[in-house]
Every structure is written in C-alpha cells, then in structure tokens.
Amino acid sequence: MAKNFSEVHDVLETYKTAIHEKDVEKLLSLYSSEIHIYDCWGNWESKGIPSWKASVSEWFDGLREESVLLEVAFNDVVIEKTSTLAFVHCAVTFTGYQEESGVQLRQMTNRFTYGLKKVKDSWAIAHEHSSLPIDFETGKGLFDLK
C-alpha cells in the first residue's frame, strides 16, 4: 500500500487513524522497509517490516479479542526537519475504550522519538523508539507521570 505523506504531520495523523482502525497495512505504510524499532513492549527491537508486522498484528489481534478501540493523542510534539530528514519527539497517550459501551478501560502515556526520512517525496519512519521512566525501587515502568 503505497501512500504519499508530504508532511510529517500526515504521518502522525495516519498513525492515529491506523491504530484506531486496527489497520495493520495502513500502519505499516508509514514505515521504511528497513525500519528499526526499540519498543517498550515485548521485544527488545524489531528490524524490518516483517518483524514489525508480526508485532503490530499481535497487538491489533489482542485489541480485537478484547473489543477495545484505541484513541491516540500526540502531546508536546517537537518536529525538527531538513529537506530529507526529520526528528520528532513527543508524548503519546493511548486510551482504550470498550467498543460497544464506549467506557474508558485504560490509559497510558509513552515517550516516543521518531526518525523519518524522505523517500520519493514521501516521509517514512526509519526509526522509532518508545520508552517509559522506570521506578528505581520497584523496577516497573511509570505510566502516569504525564
């Protein structure tokens, strides 16, 4: 699914939509083929679309099984870019709602950094890093600091 993302904001908006729709292919269309991801869930890293597709498919399948819709909100977005490279850092809040009732089930905010490159006049995510601060005493991630 080839898409043209002429602005970095187009990538972020499509990211939100793809997650809400649980559309694996739409989400993957945002990434370069040699994507390198450091995620704070499950795997240390994902390299390449096949690896990332497996993780995304598992995530979306779990949301479908639980009948959860996710809303994504980008906060404190900072974008630095040249004509061919962009660097984005922000806080991303994921809020899960029960599909039928609309009742909020859970919410968490992660820190994200994206490295994008322009390929054939379209922005693509080449590197993504999500993280959480860690509580030194418990060793657990802190989800509610933001």
UniProtKB/TrEMBL annotation:
GO molecular function, one term: isomerase activity
Domain SnoaL-like: 8-134
Statement: the UniProt record of this protein carries the keyword RNA-binding: no
Keywords, sorted A to Z: Isomerase
Domain of life: Bacteria
Pfam family for this entry, one: SnoaL_3
SUPFAM superfamilies hit by this protein: NTF2-like (SSF54427)
Statement: the UniProt record of this protein carries the keyword Isomerase: yes
Protein name, per record: Ketosteroid isomerase-like protein
UniProt organism field: Planomicrobium soli
Organism phylogeny: Bacteria, Bacillati, Bacillota, Bacilli, Bacillales
